[in-house]
Amino acid sequence: MLSMRIIAALLAGLVFASGAYAQMSLKDKSPETAKALKLAQEAVAAGKQGQLEALVAKAEEAKTQANIAQKNFTSFNLQSAAKYLDEAVIEGKKGGTEAATAKAQAAVEVLGSSAPEDANLP
């Protein structure tokens, strides 16, 4: 009878641990992803202040960090964020502050989402 209690306790612990791991994977980000998010937020702030050169520089740095993070694992979120950041740089170099800011904001939303980084869903 004691062995059934031990098995039940082990199964309950396994269920709890797997739930905690799943929850952790939804919130935790790699250091590179966190840096990319921070830099993208700075790009948006610069764009809102009309500082186009700063926006472009921060967006380029953010894209670099997102690309570094992608080398460690495949992620649809990181791919999307890198694309938005690239578009922000292109728009910024064309002189489109509002368009560049909007693209950087889209990257912020993707990088800050609660979806797991390794969610390879299109």
Can you tell me about this structure?
This protein is mainly alpha-helical. The chain has a domain at 29-111: Up-down Bundle (Four Helix Bundle (Hemerythrin (Met), subunit A)), CATH 1.20.120.660. 80% of the residues lie in helices and 0% in strands. The chain has helices spanning 2-27, 31-48, 52-72, 76-93, 97-111. Helix 2 (31-48) runs antiparallel to helix 5, helix 3 (52-72) packs parallel to helix 5 (97-111) and helix 4 runs antiparallel to helix 5. The model is unreliable at 18-28 and 116-122 (pLDDT under 50).
What's the level 1 CATH class of the domain at 29-111?
Mainly Alpha
Mean pLDDT: 81
Instruction: Tell me the number of strands.
Output: 0
The name CATH uses for the topology of the domain at 29-111 is Four Helix Bundle (Hemerythrin (Met), subunit A)
The outline comes out as elongated
Name the CATH superfamily classification of the domain at 29-111: IL-4 antagonist (De novo design) like domain
Order of helices and strands: HHHHH
Distance between the termini: 50 Å
Number of discrete helical segments: 5
Strand content: under 5%
Rg of Cα set = 20 Å
Structural class: mainly alpha
Reported for the largest beta sheet, the result is:
none
Ranges where pLDDT stays below 50 over 5 or more residues in a row are 18-28, 116-122
Helix coverage percent: over 70%
Q: Supply the CATH architecture of the domain at 29-111.
A: Up-down Bundle
